Please model this.
Amino acid sequence: MSRLQIAAGNWKMNKNLEEGVALATALVEANPSSDQLVILATPFIHLQAVGAVIKDVPHFKLAAQNCHQAEKGAYTGEISVEMLKSIGVEYVIIGHSERREYFKEDNALLAQKIDAVLAGGLIPIFCCGESLTIREAGTHVDFVANQLKESIFHLSDADFSKLVIAYEPIWAIGTGVTASPAQAQDMQAALRQLIAKQYSQEIADGTSILYGGSVKPANCNDLFSQADVDGGLVGGASLKAEDFTTIIKAL
Ligand code: PGA
Model:
């Protein structure tokens, strides 16, 4: 089954505007063409400028790292889907573990954000993943299954088919510890089975499921060669043009 393979860079709260534009420029120069997708999830204030850098390179797309669930209104400091759309953003990361942990975003709120993103015509990159305690207790598949159930399994077939999913075990994010290719594969195959059960085999086979958590040049080939790993959501290693280029080329 050929699914879209994706390298998504999550810059988090890193780089000033000048540095961000320089990084995007270097990435475009190093990756002038690809059959696969490169997504840059930059800080909000970089989006327009980075959008200008990638505008003639169709395999590069722009993502926000978060958005608000309401259409508009008195939500000081927040950004709406419509605003993102108006500057050419096509994807929005929803449910990153740092949003869940530091900003107390729970499954029910994330369901609202997913709905808002889809209603606005953008594509959510839905993040899920378990903590080390849950992994060690052996309940990780059930835990992640519940995240899917409470945040995305209410979607219609048509909406679900648009989603990108990123499995990111929390114990592997920014820690230098990567899930082994077999651990990533096992979880992602289990998620695909759940999707097949909830929707259909066809929809499950068409859903890109990325792995995230300390993806780097040294491990990307092994991870991406797993049958159910359709690319990566990359934090630290996406901040260096050379490293992220190696990861893009490994797709
Ligand atoms: P990392 O971050 O690659 O630095 O572990 C991944 C993520 O948080 O998406």
Observations:
- Residues 10, 168, 173-174, 212-215, 233-237 surround 2-phosphoglycolic acid (CB under 6 Å).
- The chain has one domain: 6-249.
